[in-house]
Design brief:
The chain has 231 residues and is an alpha+beta fold. The protein is built from four helices and four strands, in the order αβαββαβα. A four-stranded antiparallel beta sheet has the order 2-3-1-4, with helices on one face. A hairpin with a 4-residue loop joins strand 2 and strand 3.
């Protein structure tokens, strides 16, 4: 019995360790998985039984993408330019998870159904941008300018919109569960049917904000903030 256990233990110890790699481009992850005989997850991650960093870096440089191991403090360190977002979006790419777009100029951008979950978008200029049905889960949009932006049906769960400008923005049916909207300007914004449960709204400007049918269960705000809101 001890011999069998010993054989099994040695087999497990000698099993090649699988490495999970994260890339800043879905297309790049797919191509590198094919080049290095890895397994692509359909998004921005691949798994390799034997990770040769030289080969990975060579492939990444060839495709102009950045990468890191899963569990690293930052999945994407390189800043992505607005032009690169537009170019890759035009080719059909939609996954830009964890992208670094701080202070990006994305005025009037057409980015419906884009996946910017966990992206860094603080101070970004997204005036009049079309982000209908976008996935912005846990993205950082603090101090971003989203005035007049279209965000209907967007997933904004746990998004950080602290101090953001959302004047006249449309967030009809948006999912804002646990969102941070502290000190955000929601003047004339349309949040009809939005889910704001557990959201932080203290200090937010809700003047003429349409909250008809919105779910405010567990949301944090001061009653007087709703005096000039519309229901």
């Amino acid at each position: 019995m001890k011999d069998i256990i010993s054989i099994i233990s040695k087999s497990l110890l000698n099993r090649p360790k699988e490495s999970i790699l994260l890339f800043d481009s879905t297309t790049g992850a797919n191509e590198i998985a094919q080049m290095l005989n890895g397994s692509w997850d359909g998004c921005n991650s691949i798994s390799l039984i034997e990770c040769d960093e030289i080969a990975v870096n060579t492939a990444a440089n060839l495709l102009e993408v950045t990468w890191c191991y899963q569990g690293a403090s930052q999945a994407v360190l390189k800043r992505v330019t607005s032009e690169e977002i537009f170019r890759r979006y035009a080719t059909g790419e939609r996954n830009f998870i964890n992208a670094n777009l701080r202070c990006a100029e994305l005025v009037s951008a057409e980015l419906t159904e884009i996946n910017l979950s966990y992206a860094k978008l603080s101070w970004a200029d997204l005036r009049q941008a079309n982000l209908d049905k976008a996935d912005l889960t846990a993205a950082d949009l603090s101090q971003a300018n989203l005035s007049g932006a279209e965000l209907s049906g967007a997933n904004l769960t746990r998004v950080n919109l602290k101090g953001a400008n959302l004047k006249q923005a449309s967030l009809c049916g948006a999912n804002l569960i646990g969102a941070n909207l502290a000190e955000a300007d929601l003047t004339n914004a349309n949040l009809t049917g939005a889910n704001l449960s557990l959201a932080e709204l203290r200090g937010a400007n809700l003047h003429l904000c349409n909250l008809n049918g919105a779910n405010l269960t567990g949301a944090k705000f001061i009653e007087s903030q709703l005096d000039f809101a519309q229901f």
